[in-house]
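Could you please review the protein record set out just below?
***
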Amino acid sequence: MDAVQRRYETYLGRTAQQDGPARVFDLDDAALMLVPASGLASLLPGEHPVTLPAFADCTVAVRDLSHTRDLLRGNGLPLREGPHGDVFVPTQAALGTTVAFRQAPSPTADR
């Protein structure tokens, strides 16, 4: 994991921060999270990538998580809940990579 972190620090020109089992790179409006296989279950309960290393998840910020949840369920997609209140479509249903949805922060009004 240390070697992978160093490689990504070189690629990105940024330092990773430790967050539980993950190493997180802040990319301003996005983030890249490196997670060892042993820590994946704590972030994506029930998920098991077919091969490793892998891009195990893509997370999307949405305006209304409740509406998104209803829309996904209404279209027959199975959902699981993540440890931080986000929801995700499991790997099997998302054709190989988990797709997670997280509530976007409320925009602040410029005054």
User: Anything to note?
Assistant: The beta strands are 17-19, 22-26, 31-34, 57-62, 80-81, 87-89, 98-103.
